Amino acid sequence: MTGPIPIDDRYDEPDQLRDQLRRLLRHRVLITLGILLGLLGGLALSLQRAHTYTATSEVLVRSTTDPFGAVGVSADNQVSMSTEQRIAASAAVSHRVPRLLGRPDNQAGTLGARVRVTNPLKSQVLRFEFTARGPQRAARGANAFAEAYLADRKSRNDATVLRATRALEQQITVLNQRLAQNQLERATAKPAAQNQLYNLQKKVLDIKSRDTDGGDIVRRAVAPALPVGPGRKTLLAVGLACGLLLGIVLAWMRSALDTRVRSVGEVRAALGAPVLGLLPSDDGGDDALLTVGHTNSPRTEAYRALAFRLRQLGSPAGPGSVLVVAPRRADAAEEVGANLAAALAEEGGDVLLVDAAPDTSGLAGRLPLLPYEAPALKEGFRSESGVLVDADVTGRLTFSSGGHTGPYTRAALSGTDRTGSEADTSTVVVTGPFLEHADVLAVAQRVDGILVVTGLDGTRRDDLRQVQELIGCSGGRLLGAVLDAGRPRRRLRALFRRRKNGRVSPVDTSTMDLPLYDGTLTVTRR
User: Fold this and answer.
1) Is the overall model pTM greater than 0.70, yes or no?
2) What's the rounded Cα separation, in Å, for the pair 90 and 506?
3) Cα separation of 377 and 389, whole Å?
């Protein structure tokens, strides 16, 4: 028994990190989309912040208590800075700002939303940061809020002084009335009342003599030279990094949810059979179906290598009858089948290419068939097998088309019915999609081996598992798979051919009769 055939899989690496990177790079469109979104976001943010400026002013908050009378109390504890910070950001201060800026009073809420009041650690300083669309507006706004806060604190201090002196003045008035009316019973009590009156008047003078200003502006705001925030280059760099991260996440999600085969390992795991060939992407714009014997390209060499591996799996004379089928797309199977037959014919012997599709697939119209001339080809042509294909090969390549199962079909597809010279004949059978036509199972039971054509990025793993299960249930022999990297232009042309339902477009008016298994089909020569 032969071991598994090694295939150079450029999409599969033993290193797990490198394999994950390759999986992500398959979705380059999503990564590019994420990068573009990130750059657009960074550009939009830079344009938004291009005309945004922030100016800062600072106010030193002073305590209104007597600095000489508050013995044992530190200056930091004489004023609650957290309370003053909340008052500075309150609506009471914001309502004073429009009048200082010469704006309507209804803009107080808008102006208050643009200011940010902070208190540096372990200090009695309030910092006002005002943001506006222009540098001059930002400076005026910051200074206006500082002045509004000082005015508000002064008014609060004045109100406190007024309340305190009003109570003392009421006591003084009562004492003066008593002294004036001589309502004291003893003369010795009069000096005591005068002393009390003197103390009350002294308290009033002390209270009124204190400074009610709430503090001083230690730093006035000036117009900033640069807009707020990072520059455009920095924002674009951040947007690029965020977009790249977004693209990687999208590519990872797409790769995790994708069920299509991406590597030789995935095809081998889904089918439970080796991969016998890897067809590289070769889209030179040529729409010719048969390339072996006509052109030299990496894809042609891959067909020759596939034919060599099939001969290794079978007898030296040839692989017998091989069914080339695709799970969903028949165009890939037709191309692989035709070129495989030509590659087998290059090594000598007779190779028969059979189109066993139940409907007319158009394979006959795409092959370079020779015209039928019975006298000239009497020795080299068997009318019961098919028509010769124009291929520059050593052996003889014939083609037969039809979806019926006549006597010659059974003889061609049965390896036990071939004797004598027919034992050296290889048969390549092409049918419709395996999962779309039930008649393919009947053909699979008659051939010596089945070759499954899978498209890279086009075949789903579930379809391959279903194909493997059906082949096992039918008793067929699964030789392996061929991984096709695809030809983009040919895929587009295949869409137009499907719309024609397999009809052959005439190139000229010369026709020929092609023998079938049970009848005759008229095929137009290209």
Assistant:
1) no
2) 87
3) 13
